[in-house]
Amino acid sequence: MIDILSYTCFAIGIVFWFWGTSYLLGRRSVLYKLHSLSVADTLGSMIIIVGLLLKIPSDWPLLILAIICLAIWNTMLGYVLAYCSADGGNNERSIR
User: Fold this and answer.
1) Residue 67 to residues 12, 21, 46, 90: CA-CA distances in angstroms?
2) What's the Cα-to-Cα distance from 70 to each of 18, 34, 45, 57, 91, rounded to whole Å?
3) Largest CA distance in the chain
4) Using an 8 Å Cβ cutoff, are 36 and 23 in contact?
């Protein structure tokens, strides 16, 4: 039963990965695409780690730490990418 739940989590996580990637092909703004991609990738990766947690419960401290780090890292990366893309491609800052 645990194996079935674990593999189901793996499959749902991979579906989230592809679902987030599919938004890159749309005609929306770059910020919308980045937001959709980062949210879907974060959720997919977290669900895959939950599947690993079901498979190897003896390593729960490391897997919980991985979930927390993944949530923090992907959130911060999304903000950095959004800030960089909102700049309009102008990477040079004028110093006054």
Assistant:
1) 16, 21, 6, 34
2) 18, 16, 8, 19, 28
3) 65
4) yes
Entry pTM: 0.77
pLDDT in tens, 26-83: 888 877 888 888 889 999 999 999 999 999 999 999 999 999 998 888 878 877 877 7
Q: Which pLDDT does position 89 carry in this prediction?
A: 54
CA distances from 7 to 16, 26, 87 (A): 14, 30, 42
What SS3 string covers the chain?
A: CHHHHHHHHHHHHHHHHHHHHHHHHCCCCHHHHHHHHHHHHHHHHHHHHHHHHHHCHHHHHHHHHHHHHHHHHHHHHHHHHHHHHHCCCCCCCCCC
